[in-house]
Amino acid sequence: xxxxxxxxxxxxxxxxxxxxxxxxxxxxxxxxxxxxxxxxxxxxxxxxxxxxxxxxxxxxxxxxxxxxxxxxxxxxxxxxxxxxxxxxxxxxxxxxxxxxxxxxxxxxxxxxxxxxxxxxxxxxxxxxxxxxxxxxxxxxxxxxxxxxxxxxxxxxxxxxxxxxxxxxxxxxxxxxxxxxxxxxxxxxxxxxxxxxxxxxxxxxxxxxxxxxxxxxxxxxxxxxxxxxxxxxxxxxxxxxxxxxxxxxxxxxxxxxxxxxxxxxxxxxxxxxxxxxxxxxxxxxxxxxxxxxxxxxxxxxxxxxxxxxxxxxxxxxxxxxxxxxxxxxxxxxxxxxxxxxxxxxxxxxxxxxxxxxxxxxxxxxxxxxxxxxxxxxxxxxxxxxxxxxxxxxxxxxxxxxxxxxxxxxxxxxxxxxxxxxxxxxxxxxxxxxxxxxxxxxxxxxxxxxxxxxxxxxxxxxxxxxxxxxxxxxxxxxxxxxxxxxxxxxxxx
Length: 491
Known about the structure:
Blueprint: H1 3-36, E1 43-48, H2 53-64, E2 71-75, H3 81-85, E3 89-95, H4 107-119, E4 129-136, H5 145-156, E5 160-161, E6 166-169, E7 191-200, E8 209-216, E9 228-231, H6 237-246, E10 254-257, E11 260-263, H7 264-267, H8 282-288, E12 295-298, E13 308-313, H9 324-332, E14 339-344, E15 358-363, H10 367-379, E16 386-392, H11 401-405, E17 415-421, H12 430-436, H13 438-446, E18 450-455, H14 457-472, H15 474-482, E19 486-490
Parallel strand pairs: 1-2, 1-3, 3-4, 4-5, 4-6, 15-16, 15-18, 16-17, 18-19
Antiparallel strand pairs: 7-8, 7-14, 8-13, 9-12, 9-14, 10-11
């Protein structure tokens, strides 16, 4: 090949590359425009959701509205205030994150609306009629706080509430009525699962960490790294037997559940074992016993593995008995006893770009989401740099990464792992590692890295967020949130 031919080939390759990059950019902005476009006269259903529950409920509410007019389901951050100003009807379905904060896909909208209300005394949204459904957890003091803040801000902007704020308590959570995940077309359909393996990763008593493997009775559903599994836990068979013995009831007695005769021992699997009144129909009392609340877990695997895995910290009640959800998954569940669970789409924690650096930060059972993100890149043969900062208590009892990652540590050329042990020498938390490597953290973020944080919000999640704020500055961190490069899978 002559020098001229090499030159023209190089030019052609450069032009082809530029065309490909241009196509990617144009496609990206086209998708953004489509996502944010609202048809004139459409009924707007806007959601702010940190873990996907509010998004799911918004989609269900949109189905209830019928088809007599266009309905647009849209993330709150994708909804322009000017678009809302021209609208007539809107429903807001919002959860509360952390200590009363907006979810990450609602922060920018709320900030803009709040800022307008502070600076202008005008009825910006006077043509809008709306209602708010707020999701929260009554176990925390800031129950549905963002729903209340949004409701107040909308009223200050001149919008008219057509109903009082409706609240839904996550502490009493059950599958949504008419759950949209049940439709035959949905990849997030509830399925029957069985526990096939319970592997203890650490050797610490009283805070055991398990990797739990599940198989579905039907074909595995689709999911992505970052998604969540909501399970319907069961009572331990010993607890059911004690309850039946207390009331001298036969476990094989059949009672009608939605018209289907069902043995009492199966009915009690998913019910809160509350006391029965001395008088009255016992069957009716049993049927009125509330279901056990759902438990949510970050998925620790990807579909390519052929199994769904969770990493679960076994919790204990003050009397020493295991928690309902964690005790069921790590101790009592077995392959002979199926249970229901469904995958929940969690788009804020999806990381589509596999060719950019990734910073993974977590502690304890937060290893679940971290493992899934690593698995996604492992099976995609990504060679991008990955920096993992993981925290646990004891270097002797809690060195869980080798067992959880299997051979992956040698499968990544650019994987860097730093572990922080609070009871090691020196005692460190993940935020201490971040502070010591602040320059390196700034550099990898400047190179386009995504940050994914998984684990408890109280303590670790809060400390990591504050440390990132200190290192990057609040404005820069908010920009990462707006660019969807900062993913928080904290609970």
